[in-house]
Design brief:
Bound molecules: flavin-adenine dinucleotide, nicotinamide-adenine-dinucleotide
CATH class of the largest domain: Alpha Beta
Number of strands: 22
CATH topology of the largest domain: FAD/NAD(P)-binding domain
Radius of gyration: 23 Å
Largest sheet: 7 strands, mixed
Helix content: 25-40%
Shape: globular
Strand content: 25-35%
Number of domains: 3
Number of helices: 15
Structural class: alpha/beta
Length: 468
């Protein structure tokens, strides 16, 4: 039986990054992945393919809606969905192949098959051809991620009633896509098909979309998706049933007045969250405990209830984000090497890759109110940015929340062009516990979208923005 210092189960962004960091630190490392391609949800059916389709559909949308104004006359463009999906598949392949390269470079032994615990130090790998192999490992990191969740009584048939995985592979542009859930997946994939011409209806249980984010972002994103893509939003509606018959889906929901409403479309995307994936891992055999939502319980060192076994990423508590999983992978590896790493969970940014993009870090205004914290608000609209006018991206704003007494930045909430990239400056500033005045005294290249962050900081610190 081959012996390893560390074995990682699952090759998503949590798992493969943990394996690389372990190898860099000198551990003999194994990585087990049940699928033939590495990279997990993120690379195969998540972040990367969704962003590939978001980019393609954005080009199409701009060609139809903005080229003429830019002075570019073309024949009316047509959607070639098969080509878009093929390009996406190419991007995914390149990215997954990159992980194979990194595994080889770092001398990580990769096993393809389903991993499960036999004892706390023996892991069995069940291969697709029925073969089995066992390895021994001093320490194990569980990074088995998550799978799409569905509502009780709703059967995903993967043809008409679909999850994000099938939505990345459709053969036609839906005429009317009904989306259950106004969260990140619903709004990103809804944007893809909305731009390609689908009518999109979002049915959301809460009274706002992207409910965990600052309320101002929810409001602005809802306004812009309605204005630009014609999205229809049914908020405070709880979906209770979905049925598919031939090419039609019927979604049943209850509204705030307890009335039952019915919607008809040709596809229904179920995007109501994801469940931790712990199926057939053998956790009960070795005594790894789960919380009441089925996530693996860990302490602040990401140790499970069994000594020598750690868990990271979507399978444990916290935001289901690729970069959160990556940080946790590095954190565990460095701890195993005797280092003292740290993760500031409050400063893990969240991004929604709609257009305009939504990005945030730190506390929301709602959270500060709840904490009874005294804070100042500064904001700057993109319509006052020269760079945004040049690119015709004037929807949205940057909002900065700063401590009323110390001026320390407590939260940054952006909606606008390229805010997914802009948020990194806010993370850096907040990691160094910058004040709004600190940022407002730093030079920002002109003309850039980033000037809007500086202006919002000027507004927060002393109510003296220059350009509004
Ligand atoms: P995963 O990526 O889920 O990887 C787990 C891996 O473990 C899988 O490959 C699985 O096959 C394997 N596995 C499970 N059990 C076993 C077993 N017993 N034996 C062997 N292998 C096993 N996050 C972002 O930060 N940004 C985004 O833009 C973004 N976009 C997304 C878009 C979509 C459509 C979806 C669905 C998700 C998106 N996410 C995004 C979320 C992101 O994909 C996850 O947070 C991230 O992949 C979690 O990483 P992980 O390593 O914990 O698990
Ligand atoms: P989500 O939790 O973001 O949103 C699900 C939404 O469904 C919620 O707003 C919820 O109120 C609603 N809902 C639940 N039950 C309902 C019902 N019966 N009727 C109507 N609405 C209902 O989940 P998601 O969008 O499926 O995304 C899953 C995970 O994937 C998220 O945790 C997210 O972090 C991650 N993800 C991240 C990105 C990104 O970082 N850009 C992109 C995609 C996915």
């Amino acid at each position: 039986m081959e012996k390893f210092d560390v074995t990682v189960i699952g090759s998503g962004p949590g798992g493969y990054v943990a394996a690389i960091r372990c190898a860099q630190l000198g551990f003999k490392t194994a990585l087990i992945e049940k699928y033939p391609t590495l990279g997990g949800t993120c690379l195969n059916v998540g972040c990367i393919p969704s962003k590939a389709l978001l980019d393609s559909s954005e080009h199409y949308y701009n060609a139809v809606h903005h080229f003429e104004e830019h002075g570019i006359d073309i024949k009316p463009p047509k959607v070639n969905l098969a080509q878009m999906i093929a390009r996406k598949a190419g991007v995914v392949k390149l990215t997954c192949d990159g992980i194979n390269f990194l595994m080889k470079k770092n001398k990580i032994t990769v096993y393809t098959g389903h991993g499960s615990f036999v004892t706390k130090q023996t892991i069995e790998i069940a291969k697709a051809d029925g073969g089995k192999e066992q390895i021994e490992s001093a320490k194990t990191i569980i990074a088995t991620g998550s799978k799409p969740f569905t509502l009780p009584g709703i059967e995903v048939d993967k043809q008409r009633i679909i999850t994000s995985t099938e939505a990345l592979e459709l053969k036609e542009v839906p005429k009317h896509l009904i989306i259950i859930g106004g969260g990140v997946i619903g709004l990103e994939l809804g944007s893809v098909y909305g731009r390609l011409g689908s009518k999109v209806t979002v049915v959301e249980f809460m009274d706002r979309i992207i409910a965990g984010m600052d309320g101002a972002l929810s409001k602005e994103l809802q306004r812009v998706l309605k204005k630009n893509l014609g999205f229809e939003f049914l908020l405070k509606h709880k979906v209770t049933g979905v049925a598919a018959k031939a090419k039609e889906v019927t979604v049943t929901a209850t509204n705030a007045k307890d009335e039952v409403i019915e919607l008809k479309g040709d596809y229904c995307l179920v995007a109501v969250g994801r469940r931790p994936y712990t199926d057939n891992l053998g956790l009960e055999k070795i005594g790894v405990t789960l919380d009441k939502r089925g996530k693996i319980e860990v302490d602040e060192h990401l140790r499970t209830s069994v000594e020598g076994i750690y868990a990271i990423g979507d399978v444990i508590n916290g935001a289901m984000l690729a970069h959160k999983a990556e940080e946790e992978g590095v954190f565990v590896a460095e701890q195993l090497a005797g280092q003292k790493p740290h993760i500031n969970y409050n400063l893990i940014p969240g991004v929604v890759y709609t257009w305009p993009e939504v990005a945030a870090v730190g506390y929301t205004e709602e959270q500060l109110k709840e904490q009874g914290k005294k804070y100042k608000v500064g904001s700057f609209p993109f319509k006052a940015s020269g760079r945004a006018r040049a690119s015709m991206d004037t929807d949205g704003f940057v909002k900065v929340l700063a401590d009323e007494v110390t001026d320390e930045i407590l939260g940054v909430h952006m909606i606008g062009p390229r805010t997914a990239d802009m948020i990194a400056e806010a993370v850096t500033a907040m990691e160094y516990r910058a004040s709004a005045e600190d940022v407002s005294r730093m030079s920002h290249a002109h003309p850039t979208f980033t000037e809007s962050f500086k202006e919002a900081c000027l507004d927060a610190t002393a109510k003296r923005p220059i350009h509004i």
